[in-house]
Amino acid sequence: MLKRLSLFVLVMSLLVSPIYAAELAPSPWTNETTDEAKTLAKFKFGLKNLFFGWTEVFDEPYETYKKENDNNMFEAVGIGAVYALVDTAFGALQVITSPLPGVDIPLPEGGVDF
Asked: Which residues contact 4 (CB under 8 A, 6 or more apart)?
């Protein structure tokens, strides 16, 4: 069951990423100058999003409230849940593809903020 779910997430992310990637800013590790630095920065970026992507469930409603003073927390929680799943899944893809510094998988809002 877990293998099927993992395969489904991987396939969906590979299918969806080119569609929305054109609208997102490049990942921060792309600013590095050498391939070695890009590989290491991409690996760190992927690990950060893999392990802390779940925090978007709490972070997104807080950011929405702080920026917009909007009382629509249900929408913000939903967006946070989607961002948490995307950041975690695509963080894993960043780790897996870290030896390939030419492959960028942009994340919504640049991934997890610290």
From this structure: none
CA–CA distances in Å: residue 61 to residues 17, 52, 67, 68, 73: 24, 16, 10, 10, 6
Per the structure, the count of domains in the chain is 1
Expressed as residue numbers, the domain containing 35 is: 2-110
The whole-model pTM stands at 0.73
**Cα angle at 74 between 92 and 66, to 5 degrees?**
85
pLDDT in tens, 58-93: 888 888 777 766 567 777 788 888 888 888 998 999
Which residues in 31-51 are b (16+ Cβ under 10 Å) and which e? eeeeeeebbebbbebbebbbe
Number of residues written out for the chain: 114
